[in-house]
Amino acid sequence: MNKETIEALRQIEKEKGIPFDLLIDALEDALHSAYQKTAHAVPFSEVKIDTETGEIRVFELIFPPGQEPEVEGEETEIDTSMAERSEITPEDFGRIAAQTAKQVIYQRIREAEQGIVFDEYSTRIGEIVTGIVQQSDSRYTLVDLGRVEARLPKGEQVPTERYEHGMRLKAVIKEVSQNPKEPPIILSRRSEELVRRLFELEVPEISDGLVEIVGVAREPGYRSKISVISHSDGVDPVGACVGPRGSRVRMVVSELRGEKIDIIPFDQEPARFVAKSLSPARVREVILDDDQREATVVVPDDQLSLAIGKDGQNARLANRLTGWKIDIKSETEMNEDETDYTAAAPVEPQVVDGRCHALTVGGKRCPNAALPGSLYCGIASHQGSGGERGGERA
Question: What does the pLDDT look like over 263-289, one tens digit per residue?
Fold first, then answer.
């Protein structure tokens, strides 16, 4: 080492933010370890670096009789205050020092950069970033974010997408690791948060707080449903997300490689929200069971397959978006189910909870709401049970 090396360490301190003293300590420790591996190393020694000239000197530590440390290991701290020092720097130690210095400096710079990346990106989990695809293997796709590389693991990739070299893509930060053997930033293209963040980028009303995305349900690569609500009179939340001539939602769909998106207006009334969540299907009626959070949805016969969706996809997404367990029936099925109800002794007259008191043959209570002033719903066969007629109490 020489004075130029010391100046280089000072420059690293300025550019990388690694304290100069920390670099010197690391070099002294590494050089000491290197010396101990030489053929004529003494039992007790230390290495010192002159921080002005860069000169490296090795000293033997000579302890008073009876005060020698029992062992010396890499992690053993030795009280050297009582020891005398005698310089024993090997003639060829300069070559060893040069090699060691390069390795230590590179390692410390790498550790410092990883620490900086971790500190910066660990506070950005859930945010969206843009990068360029570098390469892919069986474990992950490597993405260049500019100053740092990130990885998109197989489990966070969308099965319908292919990531070609040089492709620009957006993803959300899912996790930041401190594993030095792999890129620290873990991205996701499967996350529902990606859909939310893309709309935030494209819709000014969302970033301004005029429109809020209440919920997102997604089957990556195929379809997503989002529920939106307006916090400002005169602002249509669905129209804001769709944009002029559909421009905003098209940008999101394009980034998601053609994934279909349904934008649903959120409604505080569960029945209306459930009905809207099954878009694009038309809904005839929604019957709620508040206790079980179950919703029976009646649709026209020609809307049944559309309401359920391919492989049940539309119904699954509606379930997750609303938080209700949805059972979809056609009008024909519902009419047939009415024949399964039979008259039964009504619940005690003083017990009025707003639900129809008719029971099925299997003993399950009708989920419909009772008509005003009645114990039964509007289904004719139910109104006749328990001595009521025309929805009025006898």
Answer: 999 999 999 999 999 999 999 989 988
